[in-house]
C-alpha cells in the first residue's frame, strides 16, 4: 500500500513537471510584458473610403499618421508613422479630456502628440481626436483614450504589453488588445 502511494506521488509529480514544461513551450518567455517582442510590420489594412481619411501634407502634419494593422501574433493594432505600436493606459478615463500619464510616466510612455488632426488608414476618423496636455501639447486620442508609445521600442515591437495590467496595445476601435499577455487580465 505504501509503495503504491509513493508510485502515485511520483507519477503525479512527473505529470505536473511535464505540464509545466509544456506550458513554457506553448507560452515562451519572449511574450511577457517586459520582453521586447517584434513582428515584421504588415501592410496597412485599407478600409472602405467611408472609414478612412486620406493622408496628405495639407491634412496632417508630420508625426500624426495612425494606421490600423493586423500583426501575426498580436492581432489588431495601431501604428504611428514610424511603425511604433501604440498603447492605451487603463488609468486614463476616455470620458475626461486629460492624460493620467505625466512626469516620469510620460518619459517611459511617450504621448503621441500632434499639431493638427492625424491622418488615418483603417480607423474611423470620427473616433480620432486630441486633448491638451498640461505642458500644452495636443495628445492624440482614439475613442477617447490618449495614445502612447513605449520610449525604447523599435518599429513593430510591443514591449510593455500588459505592464502592471495597465498598459495595452490599442486596437483600431480604441479597445485594448488582450493578445500576447503574460497572465490573465481583470
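Sequence proposed for the structure above (186 residues):
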Amino acid at each position: 500500500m505504501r509503495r503504491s502511494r509513493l508510485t502515485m506521488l511520483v507519477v503525479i509529480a512527473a505529470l505536473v513537471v511535464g505540464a509545466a514544461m509544456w506550458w513554457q513551450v506553448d507560452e515562451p518567455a519572449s511574450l511577457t510584458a517586459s520582453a521586447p517582442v517584434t513582428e515584421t510590420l504588415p501592410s496597412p489594412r485599407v478600409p472602405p473610403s467611408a472609414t478612412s481619411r486620406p493622408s496628405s501634407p495639407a491634412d496632417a502634419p508630420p508625426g500624426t499618421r495612425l494606421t490600423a494593422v493586423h500583426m501575426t501574433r498580436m492581432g489588431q493594432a495601431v501604428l504611428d508613422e514610424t511603425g511604433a505600436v501604440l498603447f492605451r493606459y487603463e488609468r486614463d478615463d476616455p470620458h475626461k479630456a486629460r492624460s493620467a500619464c505625466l512626469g516620469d510616466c510620460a518619459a517611459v510612455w511617450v504621448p503621441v502628440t500632434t499639431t493638427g488632426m492625424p491622418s488615418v488608414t483603417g480607423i474611423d476618423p470620427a473616433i480620432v481626436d486630441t486633448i491638451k496636455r498640461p505642458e500644452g501639447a495636443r495628445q492624440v486620442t482614439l475613442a477617447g483614450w490618449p495614445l502612447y508609445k513605449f520610449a525604447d521600442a523599435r518599429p513593430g515591437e510591443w514591449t510593455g504589453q500588459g505592464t502592471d495590467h495597465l498598459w495595452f496595445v490599442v486596437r483600431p476601435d480604441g479597445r485594448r488588445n488582450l493578445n500576447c499577455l503574460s497572465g490573465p487580465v481583470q
